[in-house]
Design goal:
The chain is mostly beta strands. It has one domain. Helices cover about 0% and strands about 30% of the residues. The protein is built from no helices and 10 strands. The strands form 3 sheets. It has a 6-stranded mixed sheet with strand order 5-4-6-1-9-10, with no helix packed on it. It is globular and about 40 Å long. The model has no long low-confidence stretch (mean pLDDT about 95).
């Protein structure tokens, strides 16, 4: 599994930059830059609501649809660590995989 640092503090799964969902999906089929990717698992936190099911984890399973990323191996992220950016995000389109590394360089 991959270590995840998440700055999308408006996500209901984010707790101290850790994810309590357990698994996430990165979108960005055909992406060539980080801002063309997103965390499709992002869910906006409404009020003080947090995910009540999972506990924050340092490592999560990451399904990755960013087929041009060097870390994508059969639609799974094989990076040791990634970051999700989007500190003020209100929807998944305002997030990105900050660790995206395009193999098309």
């Amino acid at each position: 599994m991959t270590r995840l640092r998440c700055s999308a503090r408006n996500c209901m799964y984010n707790e101290d930059q850790l994810c309590s969902k357990g698994d996430i999906e990165i979108g960005g089929r055909g992406a060539s830059k980080p801002n063309e990717t997103c965390c499709e698992s992002f869910q906006e936190r409404r009020g003080g609501m947090k995910n009540s099911v999972g506990r924050p984890q340092k490592e999560v399973e990451i399904d990755c649809r960013a087929t041009n990323c060097n870390f994508n191996q059969d639609c799974k992220c094989c990076a040791d660590e990634i970051g999700i950016a989007g500190s003020n995000a209100c929807n998944c389109g305002e997030t990105e995989c900050a660790s995206f590394d395009c193999q098309c360089k």
